[in-house]
Amino acid sequence: MAGLVFLTTADDAGVPRETARILGGARLGAGLPAADWPEQGIAAALPGVAPTALRERWLSPVDCQQGVDEGIAWRRTGDVLYGVIELDEADFAGDARTPLQAASETAYRRIFRLLDAQGLPELWRVWNYLAAINEESHGLERYRQFNLGRQDAFLACHRGATGNVPAACALGLRDGPLSIAFLAGKLPAVAVENPRQVSAYHYPTDYGPRSPTFSRAALAYPPGQEILFISGTASIVGHRSMHVGDVAAQTRETLTNILAVLGEANRLSQQAGFRPDQLLCRAYLRHADDWPAVAAVIEEMLGPVEVCPVVADVCRADLLIEIEAMAMAAR
């Protein structure tokens, strides 16, 4: 089977007429109607982008199977599955845990049940979005509540919370449900860490009662392909935030981390050929006005790569920028 194709457009141009071949994707910004396939809606401004919205899609070379299980809309092509789940925290208001912690644990438990039922147990990449990520409620920052629920689900479902965990990001939007999209498969991904950073799952308790459950990157292996997923990356060295208040310096530190992860990925890769100018990036900015400064640093350090800027809150209140990236190669 030929490999997956990743496509970003401002409209439905380039989409195959056989929409059954769209595995899933994301809708960023405002103005595009919801799709018939599993699609994560990210209602955020896209500074510096001419259209008001972009649509990302994973395209399959053959028709996909599809279904809805426990609120997860999913499609599968061969041994690869893409799914999206959204949960309203208000539905968990009576839980002994905080509503966000309960929603997070519930979502991940459902994801793991689906993957087990489909015989595709390996979680490769996860995109997490939640409202007001840096605000405090129930005596705890909301991102820390999310980490509690996520890790509880990993442990309850007999997934490790350290080592070979998926690549991921967690960003804050102004409002809306807990939204989680994911890619999974039959073969395990190869976790990649950053020699400049403490692994997120080994963070000290200064950052919350439970560490974040993600790897710095993951090498995934759909049939005939190798895909590098670089997690949301920020201006952190060791485990400490750097260059507080300076968005250009934070962007440089972030990209230095991404290049370090890229080097480590090439050491572990079956191809060992991923280059900085091949990266497809999504840059999350706390302030839309910072985009020109961020774009200039990206151009300086990576070259003319494809970047989608998104206004969103980063998981630490002292960080202004987070960048995730992806690259694909044939095997």
Automatic annotation (TrEMBL):
Residues 56-184 form the Chorismatase FkbO/Hyg5-like N-terminal domain. InterPro entries: FkbO_Hyg5-like_N (IPR049368), RutC-like_sf (IPR035959). It comes from the Bacteria. This is Chorismatase FkbO/Hyg5-like N-terminal domain-containing protein. It comes from Azonexus hydrophilus.
